[in-house]
Automatic annotation (TrEMBL):
<dbReference type="GO" id="GO:0004714">
    <property type="term" value="F:transmembrane receptor protein tyrosine kinase activity"/>
</dbReference>
<keyword id="KW-0472">Membrane</keyword>
<protein>
    <recommendedName>
        <fullName>Malectin-like domain-containing protein</fullName>
    </recommendedName>
</protein>
<keyword id="KW-0067">ATP-binding</keyword>
<dbReference type="InterPro" id="IPR045272">
    <property type="entry name" value="ANXUR1/2-like"/>
</dbReference>
<dbReference type="InterPro" id="IPR024788">
    <property type="entry name" value="Malectin-like_Carb-bd_dom"/>
</dbReference>
<keyword id="KW-0732">Signal</keyword>
<keyword id="KW-0418">Kinase</keyword>
<keyword id="KW-0812">Transmembrane</keyword>
<feature type="signal peptide">
    <location>
        <begin position="1"/>
        <end position="28"/>
    </location>
</feature>
<keyword id="KW-0808">Transferase</keyword>
<dbReference type="Pfam" id="PF12819">
    <property type="entry name" value="Malectin_like"/>
</dbReference>
<dbReference type="GO" id="GO:0016020">
    <property type="term" value="C:membrane"/>
</dbReference>
<keyword id="KW-0325">Glycoprotein</keyword>
<feature type="domain" description="Malectin-like">
    <location>
        <begin position="38"/>
        <end position="393"/>
    </location>
</feature>
<feature type="transmembrane region" description="Helical">
    <location>
        <begin position="419"/>
        <end position="438"/>
    </location>
</feature>
<keyword id="KW-1133">Transmembrane helix</keyword>
Amino acid sequence: MEETNLHRIHTLSLLILTFSLFSTLSLSSFSPTDNHLISCGSTVDTTVDNRRFISDSNPNSPLLSSAQTIPLTNQSPSPYSIKIYNSARIFKKPSKYAFEIKEPGTHMVRLHFHAFVSSNLDLSDAQFHVLVNGYVALSNFSVGKVRDFVVKEFFIWADSDKIVINFVPAKKGNYGFVNAIEVISAPKDLIADVGFLVNGNKDEKFVGLTKQALETVHRINVGGPKVTPFNDTVWRTWIPDYEFFKSSNDLSKLMYFGGRIHYQIGGASREVGPDFVYKTARVITDTNGAVLNLNMTWEFPVDEGYKYLVRMHFCDIASISLGLIHFNVYVNGYLAYEDLDLSSITYMLASPFYVDFVVDDDSSGVLRVSVGPTNKTMAYGVDGILNGVEIMKMNNSVGSLGGKICAGMVLKSWPRGNIGVLVPFVAGLCLLLSLALVMHRRTVGMRNPVSWSKLPTEVPGVDLNHVNLHLSGKA
């Protein structure tokens, strides 16, 4: 019964948003310098959401090892299927695409997978590794029996003139595949270099986020419906939060805003989060003037053994005037942001703000975020608000997002395909290689010093006295 009610709520929310946001939604004209969209295995170009995906059968395709690959077409596609998922490129040997990069910096890499059956080949049987610019993006990856398409999104720093994507079958006799690839320059402010480190011991900042390989594992529109790439300025997908929301329905209510979102220079831009995210939220409101001493909590499944970048989006669409909302923010039970007062940061209502936290996995396989009242919360006010959450896995010490084996050993393992046996022997070697890379980057950094800002997520003019963080307590 509860699940049925949740679905009814989100169906209603979709109808409300269709009418209240359609006329006010204004997408920015973000035009990436590097914009490679590839339809793999297709003989013709394909258009999806007004974006043109180029066939990799073109002689100018970035695919370098076409002699070792096989184009495959779905002979019985659904009439409602997205066209880029009706073809695939099959890799029976290590193969790679190399994309020319005009502008160094963070790039979004999206890999599209759909396991269709064609010519007696069932793509759900594929098992393979994917390497991106020397990072292990996917290890022993298999789509399995998932009927829907799967999109894997990564943020990769490119400081050379190419981004190279390798596909390596997990073992001889197996194969890999991909349906479509996107390699796009990320907006300059999409990944800030500094985040708050949440470890429960002391106030720290994590510097160097832009140089980490990141994988998007969750991107949530809190209190609202699914947001598709068509309605996002950088073509992302945001899913509803009801699957992850763990608090009692009595604690919160959904909030919808039909007015204008005020984007400020230095604050969150439409590239950081679209209107559809900032115009919806969950809020805690007090009852009969009594402040509820309870939190709203979301729980997200994550892989153990990694650090995570947790980005939380806030936009005060609930208050009737400034200064009426104060609340605490918790990550994995630790107090991450105390007495968050959006008015003191944005100086206006309906103005987006986001904060980046870096947190270690606590070995539970679950990452929790919460918001709730503080001792400054006012009666008859809003006790907490959240508009969106993004969780990104960070590469480990050997440069991997999928295990303890570095990219070099994945390539050297072919054609033996005995990576599992090699683990205890090569993990140390991978660690040495990664340390050497870190030392090299530090040496380069000393030659080319970078001027760091105090906190990229701040709005200019914000007094750091307002950003009072305490990480020592448990919720």
